[in-house]
Amino acid sequence: MKITKETVLYVADLAHLELQEAEVETYRNQLDQILTYVEKLNELDTRQVDPLAQIAVAGADPATRWRDDRTRACEVAAEALAAAPDARAPYFRVPKVIEREP
Amino acid sequence: MTGEAKPTAAGVRADLAAKKISARELTGKYYARIERENPHWNAFLALSPDRAFAQADRIDRLVARGEELPPLAGLPLAVKDVLATRGVPTTCGSRILENYRPPYDATAVERLEQAGAIVLGKTNCDEFAMGSSNENSAYGPVRNPAAPDRVPGGSSGGSAAAVAAGLAVAALGTDTGGSVRQPGAFCGIPALMPTYGRVSRYGLIAFASSLDRVGPMATTVGDVAALLGAIAGQDPRDATSAPVPVPHYTKELSQPISGLRIGVPNEYFGEGMDAEVRKKVEAGIALLEGLGCRRVALEMPHTDYAIATYYLIATAEASSNLARYDGVRYGLRIPADTLAGMYRKTRGAGFGPEVKRRIMLGTYALSTGYYEAYYLKAQKARALIARDFQQAFEKADLLVTPTSPVPAFRLGERTADPLAMYLADIYTVTGSLAGVPGISVPCGRTGLGLPVGLQIFGPHFGESRVLQLAHAFERAGGASL
After folding, report:
1. B479 within some domain
2. What is the ipTM of this complex?
3. Of B22, B48, B80, B404, which is the active-site residue?
4. Residue A19 pLDDT > 60, yes or no?
5. B210 catalytic, yes or no?
6. Quick check: is B80 catalytic?
7. Which of A71, B249, B344, B398 has the maximum number of C-beta atoms within 10 A of its C-beta?
């Protein structure tokens, strides 16, 4: 068993997910199975292999193309705010944050 | 649709030009059919009649003035609900975006409207495109028009079902690990994943940014080519869209395929493959050989590592992309006394089980102490899988494989075992990781009448060749093998 109940709760906390009690054991079991399966990658000798993060085709490598950095007016601010659960233009409102959360 | 000619973009345009029907009448006809039949299929989640009829009237004015009609004039189009549509609900199949109406359009949607298409509405999908059966939608599963007790595939299941059921003539889907091709195969329609960088993702709500692509689904390969021609090309609003010239896919469609070397990788015909699927795909390859293609046996030795690689990379990227759903700027908010409490409650209530599972898997793979063992290792395995493709395309012009090891399965049959569901993505995730284009094209049916898909991969930006082979296959009767 690679994944304990504590690991599930730790990862859920990192990901800001509130889990129901019943979900914890289901996810523990499923994540354990999946992580056991992906261990098969350890069969591969990758010491001489560079990681591939992004497909970059000749002449089309996104990392080498930059657009001009120009400012433009935001024309959809009102519509964007209208989609928020709680807004007071030009701000989004959230519960009061005074002290850092522990 | 059995018994009647398949509606196509070219057919719609010709009917409008000949004034056999107006765009407004045609749009009304499709809405009437959707109203009647969609409750059974659950393919559409939202309709956009104001927008559709306004566009139809624009087309009808062109007809009245005797002007040249744009290539997709009047085309009744369905759009997967992960693509942003201004003022029209865009939920990603998730409760967390239940009432969200974006203030902008995805580039692919905008370009299809410029080409004359009529957006009928938004289609059902697995939540945030995470799934292979459409059963992960918060708004209920979709039924497969080819077999109503079975899944349509996923995640673009609503788009595939809408086209297969005749509720739209074409659709946009998105493909991260097979989500355009596999539902295309399950529902019996051609469906293309273009090269990474071929089509702008602006307005595609992100799942896994190094993998996500927008792709067309239609009743014929010719229509797939026409839609691709309209949406392809660089977009200043998506830095990953490539400055590579766009060929005239439709004009090039009928170029000869005789003499093409078609690579058949051994690893795509291994254990776990349904016997009837194997038989149909073998018959499909024989059909291509009969058309003058040369079969080349190949090995792609890292294929067996693709599922593990894909599910680490895709979930890691998803855990980062989905951090934005925090109840602040859009969508659901569950109030709490503290900000962190609000995040946790909102996300806990707003995301469904598969999305939570993937966020946790991705968070774990990226967490301190595990990053190198999982995420970095997967990126190295990805390089090996991409190298397999590179080497294969030195020996072959195109690769031919099954799209899925199994035909459409029964609703509810596989939901209890997420890993088993992941393993069935084996033939599609490889091309996703390598960034190459791939199409699924109908390749006969099983004894129960379930459609089988033949997948054709091409090299980067080789869509034209892929479409040519698929078109020749379709014309030679591939669908009725």
Report:
1. no
2. 0.93
3. B80
4. yes
5. no
6. yes
7. B398
| d(C-alpha B286, C-alpha B288), whole Å | 5
Overall domain count for chain B: 2
Active-site entry in B132, B155, B159, B241? B155
Asked whether residue B466 is assigned to any structural domain, the reply reads no
Are B329 and A84 inside 8 Å of each other by CB? Answer: yes
pLDDT single digits (tens) A57-85: 655 565 666 777 889 888 888 999 999 99
Is the residue at B48 inside a domain? yes
Q: Up-side HSE of residue B132: CA atoms within 13 Å toward CB? A: 30
Out of B103, B210, B336, name the one closest to residue A76 (CB).
B103
CATH number of the domain to which B61 belongs: 3.90.1300.10
Regarding whether B331 and B214 lie in a shared domain, the answer is no
* Residue B406 domain flag: no
Whether B312 and B229 share a structural domain: no
Co-location of B117 and B243 in the same domain: yes
Judge if B237 and B359 occupy the same domain. Answer: no
Identify from A19, A57, A61, A96 which residue to disrupt to test chain B contact, counting B C-beta atoms within 10 A and taking the largest count.
A57
pLDDT tens per residue, range B365-396:
999 899 999 999 999 999 999 999 999 999 99
* Spatial separation of the C-alpha atoms in residues B381 and B313, rounded to whole Å: 10
A50 interaction partners in chain B (CB closer than 8 Å): 380, 383
Separation between Cα atoms, residue A95 and residue A78, nearest integer Å:
22
Cβ-in-10-Å burial (0-12, 13-18, 19+) of A45 comes to exposed
The answer on B198 and B63 residing in a single domain is: yes
| Interface with chain B: mutation pick from A5, A28, A31, A38, highest number of B CBs within 10 Å | A38
- Mutation target to probe the A interface, by most A beta carbons within 10 A, among B96, B234, B304, B364 is B364
Residues B234 and B336 occupy one common structural domain: no
Give B306 or A54, the one with higher predicted confidence. B306
Name the pLDDT band for A98 (thresholds 50, 70, 90). Answer: confident
Q: What's the mean per-residue pLDDT of chain B?
A: 97
Q: Which domain holds residue B86?
A: 9-249
Residue B142: CB atoms within 10 A of its CB come to: 34
Look at A53 and B333 and tell me if their CB atoms are within 8 Å.
no
pTM (whole model) above 0.80? yes
pLDDT in tens, B97-150: 999 999 999 999 999 999 999 999 999 999 999 999 999 999 999 999 999 999
If you compute the radius of gyration of chain B from its CA atoms, what whole number of angstroms results?
A: 21
Residue B398: strand pairing partners: B262
Domain A1-43 CATH superfamily: Glu-tRNAGln amidotransferase C subunit, N-terminal domain (1.10.20.60)
Verify whether residue B156 is a known catalytic residue.
no
Chain A: residue nearest B354 by CA? A27
Based on DSSP, count helices (H) and strands (E) in chain A, helices before strands: 3, 2
